[in-house]
Design a protein that fits this description.
Layout (H helix, E strand, L loop, with lengths): L5 E5 L3 H13 L3 E5 L2 H10 L4 E4 L8 H10 L8 E5 L4 H9 L4 E4 L4 H45 L1 H16 L12 H24 L11 E4 L1 H18 L3 E5 L7 E4 H17 L6 E9 L2 E8 L6 H6 L19 H11 L4 E4 L7 E7 L8
Parallel strand pairs: 1-2, 1-3, 3-4, 4-5, 7-9
Antiparallel strand pairs: 6-8, 9-10, 10-12, 11-12
């Protein structure tokens, strides 16, 4: 029993109220009183008690009716109610439990029994609240694990698959000596960059759980867009070749730098390009465009595939939403959700434009590097 346990006593007999209130106050409870059902309901609406001691025989609203009203309201249905009544018929007790009562005490009662039953109901309620908190925490943990799984199965998959394709192409190439494979410096550099990116993604797994809390950790720097997109296109070329897809870049070298986290921005492009490849057949064309609009850069990633309908465009960036035209059944529907979290953490916006049978178009914005902002 603690001071924050406040009880509401409801009885139309003033002597009963005074005696009961004095006894419970001496035990350290905060006590409020109501002399009828209507006053009790108004009092509860102003401040909810931890427990209600409720008489049955009262004018206007009897105890059963008060209990039914409180149990029908989502805001008050969890408050435990102990009926205190001189009615000792079995049917009276049964009705008390049917309308939602937690316990039933017959007058006259022993003070020790009343205190024990009050403590029991308060303990049950506290345990229930704690269980609800634990359930919510478990749900959050499960969602975080889903995000981890997505990063491992999706974000790490792309650089691994790209490097695998490079190695397989080298193994299948015609060499004079079948035991010797010659790799150009550019291929080795691409493989090294792919390995670096995998390590960066693995290191970021510790931070990924913060996507769930809206607290993405950024390591921003000034990024030159033409070079960034060019490097992205080179690394993704093996995957594009596998799908017979073509990446078309419309990035002016005159565009100013953006202020962004290199690795997280790379993940945005990876998810959006992978999304186009996943939901379309081969021979796809994908355009990456960027233009300056006031103090930000406006990006579009557009393809000539099956497009999006309006219902998809509205919900694609929600957690665990997936497109309806996928040629594959695997995936958690987290890619676009993570894109939104990343872009919004940068202070930008992201969206999709619905164009059924006319290709999919995604857009997002990023701020300019600080030294380029207008004053």
């Amino acid at each position: 029993m603690t001071e924050q346990n406040n009880l509401l006593l409801v009885d139309d007999t003033l002597d009963n109220l005074r005696l009961l209130a004095a006894m419970l106050s001496d035990k350290g409870y905060q006590v409020r009183k109501a002399i009828n059902g209507k006053i009790a309901i108004n009092t509860i609406q102003q401040m909810q008690p931890d427990l209600i001691l409720l008489d049955i025989n009262m004018p206007d609203l009897n105890g059963y009716e008060v209990c039914q009203i409180l149990k029908a309201d989502p805001l008050t249905k969890e408050i435990p109610i102990i009926f205190i009544s001189a009615l000792d018929d079995v049917l009276d007790k049964i009705r008390a439990f049917q309308v939602g009562g937690s316990d039933y005490i017959i007058k006259p009662f022993q003070p020790e029994e009343l205190i024990a039953r009050i403590e029991n109901q308060l303990t049950i309620r506290q345990q229930k609240k704690q269980l609800e908190i634990e359930i919510q925490e478990r749900k959050k943990t499960e969602q975080s694990l889903q995000v981890y799984l997505h990063v491992v199965s999706h974000d790490l998959r792309n650089p691994v698959l790209g490097m695998s394709l490079i190695l397989k192409n080298s193994l299948n190439s015609e060499e004079t000596d079948p035991e010797t494979i010659t790799l150009s410096r550019s291929i080795v550099e691409r493989m090294a960059k792919s390995c670096d990116r995998q390590l960066e993604l693995i290191n970021s797994l510790v931070e990924t759980q913060q996507f769930e809390r809206g607290g993405v950790i950024l390591h921003c720097q000034s990024l030159a867009l033409e070079n960034f997109i060019h490097q992205f296109a080179i690394e993704w070329q093996p995957l594009l070749d596998q799908h017979s897809a073509r990446l078309i870049l419309e990035i002016s070298p005159e565009l100013p730098a953006v202020w962004a986290d290199n690795n997280l921005l790379w993940r945005v492009f990876e998810n959006l390009i992978a999304n186009s490849l996943k939901y379309n057949t081969n021979d796809l064309e994908i355009w990456i465009k960027a233009e300056q609009q006031d103090e930000k850069i406006y990006f579009t990633i557009q393809d000539n595939g099956i497009g999006l309908d309006a219902s998809q465009a509205d919900s694609l960036f929600e957690q665990y939403q997936r497109g309806t035209h996928s040629h594959q059944t695997l995936g958690l529907g987290l890619g676009l959700y993570l894109c939104r979290q990343i872009i919004e953490a940068h202070g930008g916006q992201i969206g999709a434009i619905a164009s059924p049978n006319q290709g999919a178009e995604f857009w997002f914005t990023l701020p300019l590097a600080p030294e380029l902002h207008r004053h």
